[in-house]
Amino acid sequence: MDNLNKGKSPFYPGQPVPVDLFIGRLTEITRIIRTIKQVEMGKPQAVFFSGEYGIGKSSLASFLRYYAERNNHILGIHVFLGGAETLGDVATKTVEAVIKQQIYEETKLEKIRNFLAKYIGQQSLFGVSINFDAIKADALNLSQGYLPFLKELLERLKDDNVKGIMLILDEINGITENKQFSHFIKGLVDENAVSKSPLPLLLMLCGVEERRKQMIDNHQPIERIFDVVEINPMNETEMKEFFTKTFNSVNMNVADDAMTLLCRYSAGFPKLMHIVGDSTFWLNNDAIVDKNDATAGIIEAAEEIGKKFVDQQIYNALHSSDYRSILAKLAKEKFDLSFKKGDIEKGLSESERKKFHNFLQRMKKLGLLKSGEEYGEYIFTNRLARLYIQFKSLGNK
Ligand SMILES: Nc1ncnc2c1ncn2[C@@H]1O[C@H](COP(=O)(O)OP(=O)(O)OP(=O)(O)O)[C@@H](O)[C@H]1O
Ligand SMILES: [Mg+2]
Question: Is residue 15 part of a domain?
Answer without folding.
Answer: no
